[in-house]
Amino acid sequence: MNDFNPDEIQQFQRVERIFLQICDLPIDERNERIQELCGDDDELILNVQSMLKADEDSSPLIDSESLFAEMDTEDDIPERIGEFEILRVLGEGGMGIVYEAIQDSPKRHVALKVIRQRSMHSKIRKRFEREADILAKLNHRSIATIYGSGVANDSTGSTPFVSMELVIGKPITKYCEDTSLDTDEKIRLLLEVCRGVEHAHELGIVHRDLKPSNIMVDDKGRVRILDFGIAFDMEVEQRTQMTQTGQLMGTLQYMAPEQVDQQSHATSTQTDVYALGLICYELLIGRNPLNRHESSMYDLVRAIRDEEHDLLGTINRSFRGDIETIVAKALSREMNRRYEDAGALADDLDRYLLNQPIAARKPSTWYQLRKFSKRNPVLVGSVGMIMLVLVAALILITNALREANRERIAAKHEQAVQLLINAFVTDDLFAAGDPEFGGQPDILLLEAMQKSADGIEERFADAPEAEALIRYTMGEQFRRMNDFEHAETQLIKCVEISESLNLPIDLVIDRRNALADVYMDIDDLDTALKIIEVTDQLVESNPGISVEILLDTLAQHASLLYHMSDLDGAAQYFEQAVNIGRERVPESQGTIDAISALAIVYTWQERFDESVKLHHEGIELLIKKLGVDHPATLVARDNLSILNFQRGQYAEAEIGFREILEDRLRVFGQQHGKTYLTTSSLGRSLTKLERYDEAEGYLLPAYNGLVEILGPEHRYTVIVRKYLHELYTNWNKPEIAEQYAPIGDD
Q1: What's the CA angle centered on 359, arms 357 and 362, to 5 degrees?
Q2: 321 in a domain, yes or no?
Q3: Tell me: the pLDDT tens digits for 552-579?
Q4: Average confidence (pLDDT) over 73-89
Q5: Which residue has the higher pLDDT, 458 or 403?
Q6: What is the CATH classification number for the domain harbouring 283?
Q7: Are residues 89 and 6 located together in one domain of the fold?
Q8: Can you list the pairs that 540-547 forms with residues at least 24 positions away whose Cβ atoms lie under 8 Å?
């Protein structure tokens, strides 16, 4: 992912401010106002014109119901330009005008594109000449035909022009809407577009500005692709290196991530594939997936860079399956995961229409797992492991039965339980995705679990031990997927059954701890405390429990007290866990976790020397046991930077938080709770260093992300809200600071 730096943010905001002052002006007043506001800054002028271009539908094809003829122009319409008799204006852009004209010889109606006189500087003229050269190479039924180009000389001076085919038509989205095409008909129409772009790609030409208004359909349903004004000839560009960086070239709503990052070296046929994916999405769903971000250029660019588009099937179930997979592949943010070119996309659309197997395949399990973990802040790996957990449940059930039912005929009962487990997995959980049994082949795992959970009680009516374990397994997975309501239901029932059956105390305590975790996750700390207090009594009255369960219970109680701001109480429980762990299981995960947690408590108690030793000890053990990128290792490294912050070593803390943030982004992605917390910690360090503009660039996204993931009242969100209040207060921006004032007693 590419982070915004302050210079980019300021540039985006400057462009946006100028655009807002100009966009509502009459067209004939815009250029003069642009010159006033932008001065001699050519880059700024081009970026503003790019935004204005996104609001315009200028093209050599016209909508038969449009009012182009009524548009005002900057000058009176000329009677002639060279050998062309001018009839009317078809459209206007920031740099050029398109006329309907009659050519003298041969006698025919054409669309004549010319440069405005006041835009006749060298860069624009070179771009215009390049467009003519590119169009001259193209010869395809789906691309508007070029008739010729040149320079017309008359009393007003020299006027560069391009003459091309004139076709009466509508933008592809409007055509599909007006003709009420079904899905297959829309795909067939888009297939024609892809074949036209494929022709360009075969010649080494990338359009770079594909959008509905540049793809027109005439009244006979024939497609024409228009406006190669910023097209990229890969052979010429690589030879002459004409493309310039620092300019947003294209229409923002249809740009690929590499375009908004201005990576001219990365421009390829896959850039057009991304735009074609967006157009397909819009044809099927009826809207661009970025519509909600259009009010702000900064927000729109951020969304293009960082956000995953919703899958088609999540909006309309009828699109689940091959078409969803095709569009998702075209819209991959990583270029190397898209189709190689428009031809490859067209081939798969062809296969879809012919009901043949498509070449695109859903991403691998591990790739989906990594992407899913980015979208779900708590889930890291659980989806891919749930079936393994259920299989492991068979072994645990067997052990539990042997322990709890010594006098039963264990083997026979275990066999019956295994059959029940198998039936639950195949007939309930898997059946939710089997169309032969009324299931949905592309159902989400969470939905399948929710459906199958309803049948647990009936399925395991004669095997309560198995029911308890299945509910425990399902409850833990629901919690990791942030479905706390279902998690609470399953774990409450699990604990009730486990206690009523007098199952082994280790199982009972472990399941009570899992239930307490749910209430801690949803910030119901009072309920969590009541559960933990009863669990503590069970621990005290059962000295034979395993050391792992003991450490887990002590650490959980300590964590709860920490979140309730009882640092002394938290330190007491963590110290007990560390002492027991070092003595009995020095290399266990429970011991390492307790060491790392105690270090952060000591940090907040300002026992810095003790904290530093524990931090380094915990990090060393974690790297040895789990590796440098493991979530637990990242947490420990984060905590060491927090220690530096607490000691007033803000520059050192900044370095640490930047390193950790880079790793979190690589491992988890942007949309993860821990990533946002590290982002906020970096922002707060910058606040202390009085680099307020940089701090804002980190704190605002972190706060907004936590609000979306955890809600505005979650303790983590409230903490970052305080950081923002601190930032704007120190920055002497009291009005903004008031917006983030602490709520209630916080």
Answers
A1: 95
A2: yes
A3: 999 999 989 988 889 999 999 999 999 9
A4: 80
A5: 458
A6: 1.10.510.10
A7: no
A8: 542/505, 544/505, 545/505, 545/506, 545/509, 546/506, 547/580, 547/581, 547/584, 547/585, 547/588, 547/590
- The residue range of the domain holding 76 is 63-167
CATH of the domain at 159: 3.30.200.20
Eight-class DSSP state of 577: H
3-state class of 322 per DSSP?
helix
Residue 434: inside a domain:
no
Question: Of 57-71, 151-165, 573-587, 675-689, where does mean pLDDT reach its minimum?
Answer: 57-71
How many whole angstroms separate alpha carbon 746 and alpha carbon 741?
9
pLDDT higher than threshold 70 for residue 418: no
pLDDT, tens only, 291-326: 665 555 556 777 787 777 888 888 888 888 889 889
110 and 222 part of one domain: no
Indicate whether 206 and 131 sit together in one domain: no
CA distances from 39 to 18, 311, 462 (A): 12, 44, 82
In the structure, what pLDDT confidence band is assigned to residue 426 with cuts at 50, 70 and 90? very low
* SS3 state at 705: helix
Q: Say whether 168 sits in a helix, a strand or coil.
A: strand
Q: Are 271 and 258 within 8 A, CB to CB? A: yes
Q: Nearest 5°: phi and psi at 168?
A: -80, 125
Question: What integer is the mean pLDDT of 587-599?
Answer: 87
| Rounded Cα gap, residues 529 and 392, in angstroms | 30
Q: Which H or E element spans position 36?
A: helix 27-38
- Is cis: bond before 106, omega within 30 of 0? yes
Whether 150 and 175 share a structural domain? no
Instruction: For residue 164, report the phi and psi dihedrals to the nearest 5 degrees.
Output: -150, 175
> How distant is the alpha carbon of residue 210 from its chain centre?
22
Assess contact for 189 and 181: CB atoms under 8 A.
yes
pLDDT value at position 301? 72
Report how many domains make up the chain.
4
Neighbours of 452 (CB within 10 A): 20
The answer to whether residues 301 and 245 belong to one domain is yes
The torsion angles phi and psi of 734, rounded to 5 degrees, stand at -60, -35
Burial, 257: exposed, middle or buried (Cβ in 10 Å; 0-12, 13-18, 19+)? buried
Question: Residue 517 domain-assigned?
Answer: no
Residue 9 lies in a domain: yes
Cα distance from N-terminal residue to C-terminal residue, the chain = 34
Q: Which of 362, 393, 411 delimits the end of a domain?
A: 362
